[in-house]
Amino acid sequence: MNTEKMKFYLYLAIILGILIAALSVFWFAKIYFQKVQFSTLRSFNVSADGKVVAIPDVAKFTFAVITEGDKDLNQIQSKNTSQVNKIIDFLKNQGVEEKDIQTVDYNLSPRYQFYSCVSPLNQPRPCPPPEIVGYTLTQSVAVKIRNFSKIGDILGGVVSNGANNVSTLSFDIDDLTALQKQAREIAILKAQEQAKEIAKVGGFHLGKLVSINISYNNPQPRIMYNLGAGKVESETSAPSETPQVEAGSKEVTAFVTLEYEMK
Questions:
Q1: Is residue 87 a contact partner of residue 114, using CB atoms and an 8 Å limit?
Q2: Does this model's pTM top 0.70?
């Protein structure tokens, strides 16, 4: 009886071994075939772009208050901060929201007195080191304006309220998501039409979409506007009239490349 059982288990083990080997060969062959098929895949690419033109909905600029003084840091900081706060209060009164006002730079740097150490006979002599005679504090604030009808008044107002540097006015779109989606859809449709035309002329059928690549180009129209650059408070003067600015338009472009299988 024991001999019969041993033979039975031996046959069963042999059968299982054959089945496992057969399955292994099957899966290996399947994977190999897929790799060979992929490596010999015939495909082609089509590229297209989609453009959407929109009007910017936000204007951006930066102003700075530059304060020079002696060695009394507290006095310089107090004077500078008071002037910046005055401008920020003006901006809020013009309808600029607090979230659209951001301090982007706060820089305190010393001013030195340098001495001439050359004697009349060009003889070397002891030379005192440079001496700190005062400090210059520069505080820069970035601002967003959403009501374009107030741009001129705001630009002129920040100067008349104490800013001695106003620069880099640019127009942008706060949220590009919807525009990028529109441009992307246009580009994909154009690329699909191109693929169909190429397949028709080339005498083959379109297979499945193998890959897709999408990128965006968002050029930003910019107007440069600068008042009193580099001047300190005592030299600041208000412009004789408010500047006239135009937002223009912004073009959002999507670039799409589709790769199709050829059948």
A1: no
A2: no
